[in-house]
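so my prof wants the structure for this chain in the tokens format not the other one, which i didnt know existed until like an hour ago. anyway here's the sequence
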Amino acid sequence: HIVKDTIKGIFLGFTIMLLGFSILYFTKQIQIQKLDFNLNFLLQGFLLFVFVAIAEEVLVRGYILKNLLASFNNLTALLISAVFFSILHLGNPHMSFFSFIQLFVAGILLGIPYIITRKLWFSIALHFSWNFFQGTIFGFSVSGIQHYSIIETKFHTATIWNGGDFGFEGSLLCLLFQTI
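here's what i got, hopefully its the right format
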């Protein structure tokens, strides 16, 4: 299941980011400034987001959620681990109450596959692809942190739809996709 779960996770993260980018672009919430392909920076972004996904998933889902499941029912354990996931990001730039809620929902989204399978592969792959395509490909900030991106975007006005400086994760559109 490792390969299957990894492919599914990467595909889902890519699909969500592509749909979000497309909707925001065609509704003029974001504009493309320029394209900047740099293989070195692309590989650095790839490695960074692989590391972040593995580290955060092993800590939050593989350790914290796993241990909470030994003491609480699935829902309680999931909610507590999702709060912890949000708290991990409190120091990020441009953090707001809404982005905290968004990260909480992301914690639920990433925790459900672990509860069902007791494996981290899907969650790691989804977390990686979500961050990598969001930041390194489509030009959004990732949890408030700006990185190199092939597509450099900007917005005229920060709105609840484009997520402002926090990035796509701070948008109402992201909340809609996570809920679906």
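also thought this was worth mentioning. The first helix runs from residue 2 to 26.
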